[in-house]
Structure formats: C-alpha cells, structure tokens
UniProtKB/TrEMBL annotation:
Chain intervals with Low complexity compositional bias: 28-42
Organism listed in the record: Undibacterium pigrum
Signal sequence annotation: 1-22
UniProt-recorded name of the protein: Cu/Ag efflux protein CusF
Domain of life, source organism: Bacteria
Pfam family, one: CusF_Ec
The keyword RNA-binding is annotated on this UniProt entry: no
Entry keyword set: Signal
Region (Disordered) location: 28-49
Length: 113
C-alpha cells in the first residue's frame, strides 16, 4: 500500500506541477500580447498648453481606448517632465495615458509624423 500511495502522490504532484507550469506559460504569452498591443495603442492629440511649473500638459485628444475615455480637451500630468521641453502649443502628437495614483498621467508622448 505504501508504494502505491507514494506513486499516486508522485503522479499527482507531477500533474499539478505540469498544469501550473502550462498555466504560467499561457499567462505569460497573454501578458506579452497585451503589452504589445498596448504599446501600439497611441492616441492622437494636439497640444493646447504646456505648464512646466506643474509638469502638466493640456491636450485636445481623440478617444483614449485603454481608459475608455471619449475625445475631449483636458489637462494631464506628465510622467517625464523633460518631454515638455520638446513640445509647444499647436503641435500634433501621439500619446499614451494611464491611470496612476488616482490621476491620469501621460506616460509617453511624441510629435506625430
């Protein structure tokens, strides 16, 4: 009986490990695909105002799909204040915004080509 119990436990452990490993691999692939899609999901916008003293930018923008937000004009915090040095009012941009600490923050911005 002891040998059978040991074999059964060994098989169960192997199956459980293999299942967990397969699930982890599947999640990694899904996360990777989501990250890939997220990085290409930039929003079109136009710079209306820049306030370097508060590290904020006012953008007139299209729909921000990852935040389920319709197009509008609004003020955003900016993650990298140095990016404000490369922009001016009237510039057409592509940007990415995310929720962070209860605020919507521009995490990436570039002049549209």
């Amino acid at each position: 009986m002891t040998i059978i119990k040991s074999l059964t436990l060994g098989v169960l452990a192997a199956v459980t490990f293999h299942t967990a490993l397969a699930a982890d691999h599947s999640m990694s692939a899904t996360a990777s695909a989501s990250t890939s899609n997220a990085s290409s999901d930039m929003t079109d916008g136009e710079v209306k105002k820049i306030d370097k003293s508060t590290n904020k930018i006012t953008l007139k923008h299209g729909d921000i799909k990852n935040l389920d937000m319709p197009g509008m004009t609004m003020v955003f915090k900016i993650k990298d204040p140095a990016a404000l040095d490369t922009l001016k009012a009237g510039d057409k941009v592509k940007f990415r915004a995310e929720k962070a600490d209860g605020a919507i923050v521009v995490t990436e911005i570039q002049i549209a080509k």
